[in-house]
Design goal:
This protein has 472 residues and is of the alpha+beta class. 35% of the residues lie in helices and 28% in strands. It is built from 14 helices and 23 strands. A 7-stranded mixed sheet has the order 3-7-8-14-11-10-9, sandwiched between helices. A 5-stranded mixed sheet has the order 16-15-17-18-19, sandwiched between helices. The longest helix has 27 residues. It is globular, with a radius of gyration of 25 Å.
Length: 472
């Protein structure tokens, strides 16, 4: 039975998404178009994502830094391809109070330029390399059509930048990071992914290679969840970042950049949520275990037992006791909307029988368990919960992929909320034509190289099998 506060996803997917975001109190809208106020629930989800990614970054030798918000316009303009990729989206600061600036400042849409300046100031010898740094920050890009988490003018993200002494080391790091993202999204967020290299037309501005993990939402649209870019020496030559190599000769560094943003929260919602509200992966839930005492005003022993239970569980999990005067139905509904993975209900009858009822969010299954065995049972439930979330999403992903060999079949498949897998041999210009002709269909990533088929769109020999779809 669906929650009456949530618009059914079968009725209107866009309104369902917005109603989940609003009722779960993730964000509020700001007075400036495209910006959001992150409410405690929304920021807690992002903070938990950040903590887990930070842990993984540190394991591969990455440390955190913080760079300025502004970039000099002249510095930003040095890298032509990069500027052309972002110029329609950038915000410029032209005045300080009433005084005109002699040179405008770019409000960072991304921080390659800032990192280049930083790297140039600290690197001298091959002995200084590699340097692996990350910053958690917000960036700003103008967006016409905005939607919470998915398209916003300000969004938060991780920007991981590295410089290396060799092409191989930099390329290896690029692949390492996209695999790190894949493992994080699949095993921590329970969302299956399609991983591969971007086509030339979808490549990050200024990169030689861009690798991506693409996720597929319940409405059949794709969402780019994370990217890893091999920049080669494009930026280091433009910004003169050199080191003295082992032969005592000057050489330009090899660079990478890696990113994942708050857009991933949109992917979590559209992968797992249902008509009762959020369904959160266990690792990122602000409250992992909610304890709900019943009739504790009449029977104080119930609340005492729940607090005793909480003292034990809070050592392992993020817990919450609902001691409000709201009705039991309201309390349960609120935890469902918020996506709390596990609720434990204890009332006078339960206490008399030394039992509790566990309600699992993704299935709303009710499990009676002895209070003496509750911690062991929760461990079992968590593992099953994670597996069920991933397997349900994986089944949907697998069923959404359709192999096609013509333009008409591609459009038919994608209009039917599918992802098309097709032979491709087109140019970036062909990608633009396809997008315009089809109403927004783009290549999402390359699955593998092929040599025995013709491109479905150009008729030329195909180079790759590519996933196509409409994307957020």
């Amino acid at each position: 039975m669906s929650n009456s506060k949530i618009v059914p996803l079968e009725k209107d997917f866009a309104k369902w998404y917005t109603s989940v975001v609003e009722n779960a109190k993730l964000v509020s809208y700001s007075s400036i178009k495209g910006t959001m106020i992150y409410r405690p629930n929304g920021w807690a989800i992002w903070s938990n994502i950040q903590k887990e990614l930070d842990r993984r970054f540190h394991e591969i030798g990455v440390v955190n830094v913080q760079l300025p918000l502004f970039i000099k316009y002249s510095e930003f303009n040095k890298e032509k391809e990069h500027v052309e990729g972002f110029s329609p989206e950038v915000f410029l600061v032209t005045k300080k109070g009433e005084e005109e600036l002699t040179e405008p400042y770019v409000v960072r849409p991304t921080s390659e330029v800032l990192f280049c300046s930083y790297f140039k100031s600290i690197v001298n010898s091959y002995r200084d390399l590699p340097i692996k740094v990350n910053q958690w920050c917000s960036v700003f890009r103008s967006e016409k059509n905005t939607k919470p988490f998915l398209r916003t003018s300000e969004f938060f993200w991780t920007e991981l930048h590295t410089i290396h002494s060799s092409k191989k080391e930099a390329k290896d790091h690029t692949i390492l990071c996209i695999n790190l993202y894949k493992d994080f999204v699949e095993n921590f967020l329970c969302i299956p992914t399609l991983m591969g290299e971007k086509t030339e037309g979808e490549r990050f501005a200024g990169a030689e290679h861009t690798y991506t993990i693409e996720t597929v939402m319940k409405d059949g649209q794709a969402l780019q969840a994370g990217t890893s870019h091999y920049l080669g020496q494009n930026f280091s030559k433009t910004y003169d970042i050199k080191f003295t190599n082992k032969e005592n000769k000057p050489e330009f560094v090899y660079q990478t950049s890696v990113g994942m943003s708050t857009r991933i929260i949109g992917a979590i919602i559209m992968s797992h949520a249902d008509n009762d509200g959020l369904v959160l992966p266990f690792g990122i839930a602000p409250v992992q275990v909610a304890l709900i005492p019943i009739s504790f005003d009449k029977n104080p022993e119930v609340l005492s037992k729940v607090k005793e239970l909480n003292n034990s569980l809070s050592k392992k999990y993020r817990t919450f006791i609902d001691e409000s005067n709201n009705s039991f139905g309201f309390k349960i509904s609120e935890q469902e909307i918020n996506g709390t993975p596990i609720c434990i209900v204890v009332g006078p009858k339960d206490l008399a029988n030394n039992n509790a009822t566990i309600i699992v969010r993704n299935s709303l299954e009710k499990i009676n368990v002895s209070l003496n065995e509750i911690e062991t049972k929760i461990t079992e439930i968590i593992e099953k919960y994670k597996n069920d979330l991933f397997n349900n999403a994986k089944k949907r992903l697998d069923e959404s992929i359709v192999e096609v060999d013509s333009y008409d079949k591609l459009v038919e498949a994608i209009n039917s909320k599918k992802i098309a897998l097709a032979p491709w041999g087109g140019s970036p210009e062909d990608e633009k034509k396809l997008k315009q002709q089809s109403g927004g269909i783009t290549p999402r990533c390359i699955k593998c190289a092929i040599s025995d088929k013709k491109c479905f769109y150009t008729g030329k020999p195909a180079k790759n099998l590519v996933y196509f779809g409409r994307a957020y």
